[in-house]
Amino acid sequence: MKVKAKLKKGNVSVKVLAKSPMAGKEEAEKKKIKVEFITHMTAKVNGKIVWEASTGPFLSKNPYMQFTFNAEKAGAKKGDKVEVDWVDSNGKTAKKSKAIK
Amino acid sequence: MQRRKFLSLGAVAAAATVLPASLSATDFRKTAPAAWEAASSAEAIKALFGDAKMIDGKIKIKAPKLAENGGAVPIGMKSKVEVESVALFQDANPRSAVVVFELGESGVFDLKTKIKMRKTANVTVVAKGRDGKLYSAVQKVEVSIGGCGG
Questions:
Q1: Which terminus of chain A is more solvent-facing, meaning fewer CB atoms within 10 Å of its CB: N or C?
Q2: Å from B111 to nearest chain A CA?
Q3: Quick one: which of B57, B78, B71 has its CA closest to B116?
Q4: Residue B32: which domain range?
């Protein structure tokens, strides 16, 4: 998973590139692979949740996410870490944190 | 405060938190499983947001009119309205719901993601504002090569 966070004009924009085949039932059957897709992603700053996504298998493979939050309202500043984690349909989890640039 | 009065206040507060306003890791796959099984956008939206009237024209969808690769169609959604949750639906796959975002109080409604579309179809965005109102937008995306399993 790749995470980038950048502070610009008071807002922090975060880009996430997760790694998952995002294969639902139909796609898994067709490709003869197991069903595997991310079901939930969370982003935190200083322990506080700023963004969440409940996801399904119709996001693209290795899904890309971009979101923005207000730095002041979130109490975030340059150098603070944005922590992103996700869980998939098989219970597998991943985590990555990156300092705000 | 009288105990009885206090308890009844608690019950009202509990009823009001069906869709939590503060973020505490809500997994919509668990709280609204029916929405994820619905084949059409209309059904999925109803399962997730109910029958309330939608306000048009406040959300901007940024999507290609013609997507060459249906495996990763970039969809951007944006609005000045302050929202607590945003859901994305399409009618190009076996099931309609793609993703439900929840924004914290610091959240800015400016989201982008990439989705699979195996044929030309409408993409619908529905957002629940902090004012309790529902906002929606629809855009048709033409797909030249399908993306589901392709």
A1: C
A2: 5
A3: B71
A4: 25-145
The model's pLDDT over A22-72, given as tens digits with 9 standing for 90+, comes to: 999 999 999 999 999 999 999 999 989 999 999 999 999 999 999 999 999
- Contacting A with CB below 8 Å, chain B residues are 23-29, 36, 71-74, 90, 93-95, 97-108, 110-116, 147-149
| Dmax (CA) of chain A | 48
Identify the domain containing residue A56 by its residue range: 2-99
A-chain residues near B95 (CB < 8 A) = 24, 56, 58
pTM for this prediction: 0.85
Residue B20: pLDDT band with limits 50, 70, 90? very low
What's the confidence (pLDDT) of residue B15?
45
Report how far residue A16's alpha carbon sits from residue B8's, in angstroms, rounded to the nearest whole number: 44
Q: Two tokens at B123?
A: 């993409």
CATH of the domain at A65: 2.60.40.10
Count structural domains, chain A.
1
CA distance B129 to B49: 12
Whether B105 is in a domain gets the answer: yes
